DNA sequence: TGCGGAAGAG
DNA sequence: CTCTTCCGCA
């Protein structure tokens, strides 16, 4: 940002029509996720573009698969990226090389057979919190259900950095809003505090109340209070198979599988799994011992919309290393989504927020 | 088109 | 560490 070749194509510019009037939040540039100061990472950038309507002709989410996006205009994306990074010589060849590095980091993988199509590794679904539906101005559920292809459940990868998480949610919400023609005015993840990213090792989602840091996930009583920045998120469809937790609960998630920025050790304490549920999510059943159990995988089985089929999580090699695609578990969205029942009780749904893995 | 090694910059 | 740049290979 000092080279003067910033902006343009850089959504971070103030005043840009960010989905909710908020320029790309600070957290996207946090040192934790970006080496050496606030250098934006490519995947951040990609997400940025994906969120902006004006780039829809250049890059866009692909309907059909979760997290899949298509680079419609490789040269343009490269140009934008180059501009952002002050690398005038940037081209798609180079950019794609960078993207390929993400394969091994399990951030992305290539959608074979589809040109310029990549997919964020939203495998290993974990629960993504849904602050109350409609806490502020989010579109009503039916909107979500009405546009199935556009709202894939927020299936996020274990180890996904909260930044990505935010972005994804943001993106989904963007879509939702665009679709719904909604104009929400508030509520984006403004870099809620955080400032103190404390470099590495610090738990992200620093805006979480202390209580949430006790365990890998937490139920928020009042999202808008606890997680102001997320409170107004429009929740994507509920994944049919959620694994709430990460890190300590999934012993088999070796560091190599973590996403950048989340590979730091420590911090997230095992603590009480899901803290006392004050108001249990209706229709939810907690499987896998809240208390103990080998696998220690807490799964929430929400009302499963029929048609939602879920594949079991991929196993991690004993070695702990996964092939980029290995860890990708697809959850086929409502192929036969009969927009059915996402349940009327969604409004009572409590946010279950996975802390970043250590 | 896409992949991944190698070297190097910051 | 995250790319950037080059390049050979398929």
From TrEMBL:
Annotated family: Belongs to the ETS family.
Main subcellular localisation: nucleus
Entries under Pfam families matching the protein: Ets
Top-rank taxon, per record: Eukaryota
SMART domains the UniProt entry points to: ETS
Domain ETS per the UniProt entry, residue ranges: 40-121
Region (Disordered), start-end ranges: 180-204, 314-358
Keywords: DNA-binding, Nucleus, Transcription, Transcription regulation
GO molecular function: DNA-binding transcription factor activity, RNA polymerase II-specific; sequence-specific DNA binding
Feature: compositional bias, Basic and acidic residues: 320-340
GO cellular component terms listed in the entry, alphabetical order: nucleus
Protein's UniProt keywords contain Transcription: yes
Compartment annotation: Nucleus
Name of the molecule in the record: ETS translocation variant 3-like protein
Organism of provenance: Ursus maritimus
Gene Ontology biological process terms in this record: cell differentiation
């Amino acid at each position: 940002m000092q080279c003067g070749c910033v902006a343009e194509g850089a959504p971070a510019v103030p005043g840009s029509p960010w989905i909710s009037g908020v320029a790309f939040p600070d957290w996207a540039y946090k040192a934790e996720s970006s080496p050496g100061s606030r250098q934006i990472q490519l995947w951040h950038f990609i997400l940025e573009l994906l969120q902006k309507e004006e780039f829809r002709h250049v890059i866009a989410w692909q309907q059909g698969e979760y997290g899949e996006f298509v680079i419609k205009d490789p040269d343009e994306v490269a140009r934008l990226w180059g501009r952002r990074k002050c690398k005038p010589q940037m081209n798609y060849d180079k950019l794609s090389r960078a993207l390929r590095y993400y394969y091994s980091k399990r951030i992305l993988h290539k959608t074979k057979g589809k040109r310029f199509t990549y997919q964020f590794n939203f495998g290993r679904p974990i629960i993504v919190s849904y602050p109350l539906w409609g806490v502020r101005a989010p579109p009503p559920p039916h909107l979500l259900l009405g546009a199935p292809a556009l709202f894939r459940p927020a299936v996020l990868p274990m180890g996904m950095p909260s930044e990505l998480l935010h972005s994804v949610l943001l993106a989904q919400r963007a879509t939702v809003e665009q679709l719904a023609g909604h104009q929400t005015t508030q509520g984006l993840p403004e870099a809620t505090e955080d400032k103190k990213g404390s470099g590495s090792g610090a738990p992200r989602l620093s805006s979480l109340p202390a209580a949430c840091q006790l365990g890998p996930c937490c139920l928020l009583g009042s999202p808008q209070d606890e997680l102001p920045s997320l409170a107004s998120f429009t929740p994507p469809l509920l994944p049919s198979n959620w694994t709430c937790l990460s890190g300590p609960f999934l012993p088999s998630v070796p560091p190599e599988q973590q996403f950048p920025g989340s590979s730091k050790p420590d911090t997230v304490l095992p603590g009480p799994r899901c803290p006392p549920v004050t108001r249990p999510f209706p229709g939810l059943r907690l499987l896998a011992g809240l208390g103990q159990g080998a696998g220690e995988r807490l799964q929430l089985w929400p009302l499963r919309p029929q048609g939602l089929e879920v594949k079991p999580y991929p196993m991690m090699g004993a070695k702990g290393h996964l092939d980029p695609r290995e860890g990708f578990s697809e959850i086929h969205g409502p192929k036969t989504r009969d927009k059915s029942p996402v349940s009327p009780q969604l409004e009572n749904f409590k946010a279950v927020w996975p802390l970043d893995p250590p």
